[in-house]
Amino acid sequence: MRPTKLFISFAFLSLLSTSPLWAQSVVEGDPSVLKEDRAPDNYVYDLKVLIKKSKENIKTVNDKIKEQAARKRNQQREVKAREYYLRAQKLAEEGRLDQARDLYERAIRITEHPEMKYYIKESAHRAKVQEAALAREEADQTRRIEEEDRQEQEEVEGAYQAAVSLYKQQKFQEAQQEFLVVEGMVPDYKAVRSYLEIITQDIAQQEREAIKTQHKEVANQAKEAEIARLREKELWRKEIEQKEKAREEQLRNQAQEVYDQALKLYQDRQFLEARKKFQEVEWVIPDFKAARLYLKRIETDIEKDKERIARDREKLLEKQRWQEELDLKKKDEEFKKALLLKEQEEKAKAEEQAAFVYDSAMALFNDNQLLKAKERFEEVEALYPNYKLVRDYIRQISDSLRTEEQQRIVEEEAARKRAEKLRSEQLMQEADKLFSEGVQFFKTGRLIEAKEKFLAVDQRVPDYRSVREYFKKIDDEI
Predict the structure, then answer these.
(1) Please, which residues have CB within 8 angstroms of residue 282's CB and are 6 or more apart in sequence?
(2) Is the pLDDT of residue 264 over 70?
């Protein structure tokens, strides 16, 4: 019989050790024994029924009190049994087996109390309920972990597919970043590391190709620049040739024009002018038509018609001088007109500025700020001399300021004299007082104090009365 009891007790202790709670509240979850169905507010029990129900309730309450007391005792026994059990466990681990067995037996004896029979069964039921709850919680936790793993797997797969897509689009650097993200989330996921190894080479190859492309573009740009430079050079050469041809054509036209003039002059027997024209033609284009032949023959013609040429020359020079004077006069008139227009513009501008400053000066003058007004009027006079009544205002302000300055000087001089007179009176009063004190000291034979007083008098009013005589008397007596 005793081994069976020992087995039951140890089983009870094992069940108790699995429970996270050592004690249960005495009245937790127990409904009030006095609670009855609520009757309507106007319902009144019959007194006999009330007494009968009260007796029944007293019996029920007593039973509940007994149960609560028994439960409290059983909880205390449970706490004690657990204490013995834990101490026995520790002693057994330390090798103190006799003491451990004694504590195990104490724990068993506590649980053999008759009141503990139902409490042990209730404890086992609570343990089963708790195990079931723990199992459900573990299952829920497992499901949550699986769901999180699934979501993480989907997220990793999405990132992986995005990286693969970027790789296929040859966006190697972006793909590398995405593969690194996948590797950080799930190391060695699918072909991530293979992609990372390959993609480094691809990026290097892409960079090399980019450098080659850049070099090629630079070479193409240099080639295009050289072609453009050659084209520009060719265009410049053609332009020079065209300009040279145009210049030659222009020279030929000018030479032809001068040559025609020379012929006409020669035919008109104006040999000197004709010679000049032929020489101009020869300078511009040597051997132009018969210019050189005319130059050789014209000397003889010049000698023969020297006097007429001289007269013609004089007329021509006169005509030239007249034309020069006419041109000079025309230029002079144009210059005068331009100068007059410029002066008119400057005058209008100065008049506009002067009007603005004049208004400002008038405002200051009306506000009796004469100095500032005078500065403004002088500024107007500098901008536009003799503008309106500016000079009159300047003269009027100067007279007013001069009168005010003289008045100020007179007032300052009068104030200075009054101050000097007041100071003299004060010094005289002080000197009178000090002199009286000095005389008193002198009469009483206190010569040093008397001399100090007389010195103070002399500092305030030099040569005051007979101070000098007192000085002499004091010096003689000392």
Answers:
(1) 288, 291, 292, 295
(2) yes
Compute the distance between CA of residue 370 and CA of residue 386 in angstroms, rounded to an integer: 19
Alpha carbon distances (Å) from 230 to 219, 225, 226, 240, 245? 16, 8, 6, 15, 22
Q: How far is CA 178 from CA 5, 149, 165, 194, in A?
A: 68, 20, 10, 14
How far is the C-alpha of 355 from the C-alpha of 387, rounded, in Å?
9
Name the nearest CA neighbour of 431 among 465, 381, 468.
465
- Are 92 and 66 contacting, i.e. CB atoms less than 8 angstroms apart? no
Q: Could you tell me the CA-to-CA distances from 77 to 12, 26, 123, 152, 298 in Å, in that order?
A: 13, 14, 13, 51, 162
* Model confidence, pTM: 0.24
Cα Rg for the chain, rounded, in angstroms?
A: 68
pLDDT tens digit sequence for 312-367: 778 888 888 888 778 778 877 877 787 788 777 877 787 888 788 888 888 888 88
Q: For CA atoms 355, 359, 365, 371, give the dihedral sign.
A: negative
Coil/strand/helix, residue 478 = coil
